[in-house]
Specification:
Blueprint (H helix, E strand, L loop, with lengths): L12 H11 L6 H18 L3 H10 L8 H11 L1
Length: 80
C-alpha cells in the first residue's frame, strides 16, 4: 500500500501543502483549500475558537485528494 508520505522542506503550511499537492499533480485543489481555510478562520473568530487551528484544519480538510478515488476507501480502512 502506498503511504503518500513525503519529506517537505521547511516553509509555511501553505507552501508545504502546495508542494505536497504538486507532488501528486493535484495543485489545482489549492485555491479551494485556501478558501475553506479562510472561511474556517473567520468562523472560528466569530465563535471564539482558535482561528489558527481552524485555518489549518480548513487547509488540510481535503488533503486526501492525492489518493485516487478507486483506492481511497481501501487506504482508509487499512489505517483503521
Amino acid at each position: 500500500m502506498m503511504t503518500y508520505m513525503i519529506d517537505l522542506p521547511k516553509g509555511t503550511i501553505e507552501e508545504q501543502v502546495l508542494m505536497y499537492l504538486t507532488k501528486y499533480d493535484k495543485q489545482d485543489t489549492m485555491p479551494h483549500l485556501l478558501e475553506v481555510a479562510e472561511e474556517s478562520e473567520m468562523l472560528a473568530k466569530e465563535f471564539g475558537i482558535d482561528p489558527t487551528v481552524a485555518y489549518q484544519a480548513g487547509l488540510l480538510h481535503d488533503i486526501s485528494v492525492v489518493i485516487p478515488n478507486n483506492q481511497r476507501v481501501k487506504f482508509h480502512e487499512a489505517l483503521g
